[in-house]
Amino acid sequence: SIPLVTMAPTRVLVVGDVDGKTKLLLKKINNVIKKSGAFDIVLCTGSFFASDGTVDDTWSSCVKGETVVPIPTYILGPTTPQQCFRFAAVPSGGDLCKNVTYLGPSGLTTLPGGLKVAVLSGVFEPTQYESEAKPGQVQAYYTQAQVKGLVAQAAKPSFKGVDIVLTSRWPDDIVRHVAGPVPDLGWLGQCPGSAAVGRALKPRYHLAGGAVFFERAPFRNHEEGNPPTNVTRFLGLAPVGNPVKAKWIYAFNITPRSEADAAELLAQPSDATKCPYYGDVQRQEPDAYRWGGAKRPHGGGHTAAPNAKRAPITQDNCWFCLGSPKVEKHLVASASKLVYLALPKGPLCKGHVLIIPVQHNKSVLALDKPIAEGVHKYKAALKTFFASQDQDVVFFERNFRSDHMQLQAVPVPKNSSDQIELTVRAAAKRYHLHVDVKEAAKCD
Q1: For residue 8, which of 112, 111, 113, 109 has the smallest C-alpha distance?
Q2: What is d(CA 52, CA 44) in angstroms, rounded to the nearest whole number?
Q3: What was the pLDDT predicted at 299?
Q4: Which among 75, 254, 316, 422 counts the fewest CB atoms within 10 Å?
Q5: Following DSSP, what letter does each residue of 220-284 receive, concatenated?
Q6: Pick from 19, 75, 22: which is nearest to 45 by CA?
Q7: Tell me, what's the pLDDT at 236?
């Protein structure tokens, strides 16, 4: 008899947003090789270059051939307009230097060794989603046509599944049905295309970049009563060299599905959950994210007319002035002479409260000293209370459709508090904002 020859698994390293830190990336990869042996490929999620398109000097050395990238490395496309020029020479995909390959804006590809990979580069931009990409154009967003092109692959008779889906950002609703703790997702923007592609192609792994590290429990890709299919394992990587040292590199072995044992492919782990994309189909359809016409933005609600004007807010019609007839006093939890504590109408989580001055004050920057002292006392009391519940508390000011200051107080688990700065920085980066860290002001 002829002995059965089995293919060795592919050894994969996955990293988060490189953000132009090529030197740090290569140093880490070389250290991993020394410690754990050779790997076959590196997959880079998110942005390979910094948001403004810059990169460190090591990249120039790689392009010149002076520095060697030790493992074939595959990257996604731009996520900001400033990065697009980096891909101008290979708009449809190709080598940026030896061993660094851009996988293109979207499509299916088979990597050396046999891994079948689906790619969706870029971010969701509502105003550009229905636009048409011109030949040779490099863009930082994906389009409806690109998403539908990938989704359509699953309906072809020749489609045999994919091993990995690689997207720039996390898919919507990926934490649904997760029983354990999940990271704070305040940084996460909409990404319906990532969800639509993941749902249709049912990959064995879905890898994406983002602000935090998150390894989701595997989820089933078949509905109850239907024949089983492979489960999907989602992995979100933090940015390379992030300040809070969240995990940004991950190693795993995978045998290409074309060579894998059928029983292994269809195995259903005991911790597998329901598919996060089932049960609310509309939210996974990219067409539902149009801002015009009869469709409405993600999250529901009504969209105000573009030129709608609101009446000026005074102490007589303010929602937060304690003497105003509009204030909802049943939400007031505690009050002093100058400051009060209230429950929000739409809390972010259990324990979310507001610190509000009794009289009309526009922001914390405009508070008189006695009012500032009252705010400080409430903050101190809340810190003490939440500490007794093994929680930290985040304070932030939100000024939206009101000229009356509201200081939000939101509790977070102590084991998640080290992610707060990283989350804020990632959200700021997404909207091209600059974050300064300053000493907290002390109230005498």
Answers
A1: 113
A2: 18
A3: 36
A4: 316
A5: -SS-TTSPP---BEEEEEPPTT-TT----EEEEEE--TTTS-HHHHH---TT-B--TTTT-GGGG
A6: 75
A7: 96
pLDDT the model gives residue 135: 81
Residue 81: DSSP 8-state: G
Q: What is the pTM of this model?
A: 0.66
C-alpha–C-alpha distance, residues 144 and 103, integer Å = 19
- Which residue, among 163, 125, 178, has the nearest Cα to 147 in the 3D structure? 125
The pLDDT of residue 401: 55
Is the four-CA dihedral 118, 124, 130, 136 of positive or negative sign?
negative
- The first and second tokens of residue 114, run together, are 């046999």
Residue the block writes with tokens 């509309």: 282
Nearest to 202 by CA among 224, 219, 217: 219
**Tokens 């390979």 appear where?**
48
Please report how many Cα atoms fall inside a 13 Å half-sphere around the Cα of residue 186, on the Cβ side. Answer: 16
Q: What local confidence, expressed as pLDDT, does residue 329 receive?
A: 81
Q: Which amino acid is at 422?
A: L
Long-range contacts of 134-137 (CB under 8 A, 24+ apart): 136/91, 137/91
pLDDT at 307: 44
Structure letter (DSSP) for residue 123: B
Residue 245: Cβ-neighbour burial (10 angstroms; 0-12, 13-18, 19+): exposed
